Amino acid sequence: MASSASALRVLLLVVLALASCASAAAAVAARTPPLANGLSFEFYKATCPQAESIVFNFLQDAVRNDVGLAAALVRIHFHDCFVQGCDGSVLLDKTGSTDSEKIAPPNVTLRPTAFKAINDLRALLAKACGAVVSCADIAALAARDSVQLAGGPHYPVPLGRRDGLTPANLTTILGALPRPTSNVTTLLSFLAKISLDADDLVALSGAHTLGIAHCVSFEERLFPTQDPTMDKWFAGQLKLTCPALNITNTTNNDIRTPNVFDNKYYLDLLNRQGLFTSDQDMHTDGRTKPTVTKFAVDQAAFFDQYVFSVIKMGQINVLTGNQGQIRNDCSAPNAASSSNDELPWSVLETVAETLAL
Ligand code: HEM
Ligand SMILES: *[C@@H]1O[C@H](CO)[C@@H](O)[C@H](O)[C@H]1NC(C)=O
Ligand SMILES: *[C@@H]1O[C@H](CO)[C@@H](O)[C@H](O)[C@H]1NC(C)=O
Ligand SMILES: *[C@@H]1O[C@H](CO)[C@@H](O)[C@H](O)[C@H]1NC(C)=O
Ligand SMILES: *[C@@H]1O[C@H](CO)[C@@H](O)[C@H](O)[C@H]1NC(C)=O
Ligand SMILES: *[C@@H]1O[C@H](CO)[C@@H](O)[C@H](O)[C@H]1NC(C)=O
Q1: Longest C-alpha distance within the chain, in Å?
Q2: How confident is the model at residue 168 (pLDDT cuts 50, 70, 90)?
Q3: Residues acting as catalytic residues
Q4: The pLDDT of residue 3 is above 60
Q5: Does residue 89 line the site of ligand 2, with CB under 6 A?
Q6: Ligand 4 atom 11: the closest Cα is on which residue?
Q7: How far is the CA of 163 from the centre of ligand 1 (A)?
Q8: Residue 310, exposed/middle/buried by CB under 10 A (0-12, 13-18, 19+)?
């Protein structure tokens, strides 16, 4: 009796100790949203334990040589997740004759260097572990490391995404990615479709602390009339870069610290020096202005919300388990089987269709 009571006391102490450890760890670790079914932080622990260090080491050198690569990789993960879920479909090359993409859809300016980096990483990971790490996971890890390498927060990435089989069509892309000319009302309605809210919008847009934009993305604020919400000196600077419509020049998204992942983007907005309408309107609209103001003076608050929101974004409509595939080449779906002399999938598909008739 006495011994079972003391055993109980010991057990209780152990439980309390564990609980206090866990809460101390939680206080140190980032605030994270719930995990999607099928994803876990330790997904490759047995099959490719070195996956994360391979990605980080590669990007450390690559970003040192080209700081723009960090911005490009962050943007690719965003486009991947917003358009039919984080399934790596943004990485697929166009196969059909989709000329319509030339009308400058929101993602025409994704940088080829970033697609190449992801394919290079795919090859390194395949060499180390075989075909186990998905392209969608590589994109998520590359975006995470890019943020860190640019001076931003480090955060854990839930892993186990599978790669989709088909790219999205233009209608889907246009319905999923808001234009830079959007106001907050429009932005919130796009984000609501994928269960993201106003705090997610403000924090994720903070990624515009990195990278560049082409004149076409903001020229409607300069011509034919100047957007009155834009700082006049800033407008003058932009007009030097974009003296008329249809110029192909670029400018930095964040005028203060263009290559550092920090909260200066929000200071830009406070000074009416946000580049896109979609940026600046967050400082005009009452639903987002308090958060913009908070992030401008509190970088830790920005980092905390960015981490929460980007992990959430990274789990949108993921394929898991035996859905989709692990692509061998991130820019093309796998052929039926490359390990033997089977016919390519396109041929098999045609045969299958013929048999079904
Ligand atoms: C909320 C709606 C958003 C809109 C309307 C938007 C729009 C744009 C546009 C138009 C560009 C410039 C493209 C060009 O002219 O070259 C751009 C660049 C960029 N965006 Fe966004 N974006 C949004 C959200 C996001 C999110 C959520 C992220 C990531 C978490 C992100 C990360 C970036 C980055 C890093 C760049 C620079 C890319 C580079 O330098 O290659 N954006 N965005
Ligand atoms: C744009 O995004 C879609 C869907 O993610 C992708 O299929 C397409 O290849 C992308 N286009 C370019 C030019 O990157
Ligand atoms: C585009 O893809 C969506 C989703 O797969 C589909 O519902 C739609 O019919 C397609 N539209 C066109 C024009 O192909
Ligand atoms: C936001 O933009 C939409 C679409 O252009 C427009 O219909 C709406 O009136 C705008 N809302 C505000 C508050 O400006
Ligand atoms: C932008 O383009 C114009 C004309 O195409 C060129 O004259 C000008 O030097 C460019 N400005 C910058 C800042 O690149
Ligand atoms: C810009 O280019 C578009 C499409 O190429 C064209 O329709 C438009 O007239 C051009 N605008 C100017 C001012 O040149």
Answers
A1: 88
A2: confident
A3: 79
A4: no
A5: yes
A6: 185
A7: 23
A8: buried
Contact 259, 210 (CB under 8 A): yes
Regarding the beta carbon of 72 and ligand 2, being less than 6 Å apart is answered: no
**HEC string of 14-30?**
HHHHHHHHHHHHHHHCC
What residues are in contact with ligand 3 under a 6 Å CB criterion? 169, 171-172
Return the pLDDT at 93.
83
Question: From ligand 5's centre to the CA of 88, what distance in Å?
Answer: 35
* Cα 48 to middle of ligand 5, angstroms: 48
Which amino acid would we find at residue 277? Answer: T
Instruction: Report the run of H or E that residue 313 belongs to, with start and end.
Output: helix 299-313
Probe residue for ligand 4, chosen from 181, 184, 186 as the CB with the greatest number of ligand atoms within 8 Å: 186
Residue matched to tokens 């005009």: 284
Condensed to tens digits (0 to 9), the pLDDT of residues 34-82 reads 999 999 999 999 999 999 999 999 999 999 999 999 999 999 999 999 9
Q: Give 17's pLDDT tier (boundaries 50, 70, 90).
A: very low
Nearest to 285, CA basis, from 207, 183, 205, 192: 183
Print the SS3 string covering 250-288.
Answer: EEECCCCCCCCCCCHHHHHHHCCCCCCHHHHHHHHCCCC
Pick the residue whose CA is nearest to atom 5 on ligand 6: 246
Contact predicate 142/121, CB 8 Å: yes
Rounded to two decimals, what is the model's pTM? Answer: 0.86
Atom 9 of ligand 4 has which residue's CA nearest to it? 185
Residue 94 alpha carbon, nearest atom of ligand 2: 9
**pLDDT tens digit sequence for 307-336:** 999 999 999 999 999 999 999 999 999 986
Category of 29 on φ-ψ map: left (φ > 0), alpha (ψ -120 to 50) or beta? beta
| Percent of the chain surpassing pLDDT 70 | 82
